[in-house]
């Protein structure tokens, strides 16, 4: 860090845009996301395929103890989000994680983080389209690859809109998911207290411990579900990407982040407690949504169809968010001379059209995966999405630790939204993520992602070496830093 940069960095800049302390319009984006939209994007971002589809596999492996896995992992997610919140209030920018990586770790870290997070959303888009294609088979016997193709095309078209319309669509997508889960919890509560439906005579909270115990397959099996559990929480950090397009980031973002605990308590822990109390965990199986299966066991066939529509919406919503973030990540890389200049171009409505188009085209790979391996496609892409997504969390935590140490020494302004526990809870969260990665190495189904990670790192290393040799600007900390040091 240069002395010029420290001298020019004041508190007013910390709550504005990351480029020379100007407003968010210096990046060309429109600040069109209001409080209502940011809140629902934050809530809906954590409700997707991992919960609606992936939980079926988790229940079959861990039984009722999956509830504990979600609760503990959810607490760690809250620590990560508070670390992100501290950084966002220090400097809210659209580049988010990659910008912080450039500033607090180095230009290569920013390069790796930007491209890895972009890849994460491309892979996640494939995951969500795969899940959506799976849900379609509930009603019609059509090839998964065909559904995946149609959905990818539709979502790409939907992203060619202004950020305000994107936020409005995501608001209603999230509202559908939230309403469905709350409604399901209320129905299950009614069955437990009033005893209606086919499950009324047998429904009991004792199912949480009477069918083989709370840990029916042992604590080890519960630990092995952590990679699936962490996958369910991927995308909660998306609120950081929206920082550059939020109307009032200093007020809106802390509120959105502070909703994380009750989101997890209601939508994950609360929902699973109710489902597993009404229907014994032994009735669930991998590859089948536990929400759909629960309504079928209750004898509420119409309810199962409705829930299947809701989870279909959830998957498409997550994929839609993926297309939103990929275009912006590619543009951030390009603005920092770490990606093709073509990605810097915006439409009149502020949409990074080229980056979104390229990302959508790569998501078409999901169509081929569904065609080649319709039964295993979901497990393959989930594993790789998990490790690439967790890299963003690792970077957030490392950057928060380094930022806090600098701020405490007076080298940088203090954030008005400090993470609780300072650097210690961030260090604990890093250790927890490390444990999850070890569990992934033990799990033969998840191990494929660890094989892919070194290959991806090698590709990025070679690409950065070539980029740096051709364009020395790519080795600068960030576009913002280059502007400041010229002043």
TrEMBL record:
Species of the source: Streptomyces sannanensis
Keyword flag Protein transport: no
Family: Belongs to the amino acid-polyamine-organocation (APC) superfamily. Amino acid transporter (AAT) (TC 2.A.3.1) family.
Start and end residues of each Amino acid permease/ SLC12A domain: 38-470
Main location: membrane
Subcellular location: Cell membrane
InterPro entries to which the protein is assigned, alphabetical: AA-permease/SLC12A_dom, Amino_acid_permease_CS
Region of interest (Disordered), residue spans: 1-29
Keywords, sorted A to Z: Amino-acid transport, Cell membrane, Membrane, Transmembrane, Transmembrane helix, Transport
Topological relation to the membrane, as annotated: Multi-pass membrane protein
Membrane spanning residue stretches: 40-59, 65-84, 104-124, 144-166, 178-197, 217-239, 260-279, 299-319, 351-371, 377-401, 422-442, 448-467
Gene3D superfamilies in alphabetical order: Amino acid/polyamine transporter I
Superkingdom of the source species: Bacteria
Protein name (record): Amino acid permease
Sequence ranges of Basic and acidic residues compositional bias: 1-12
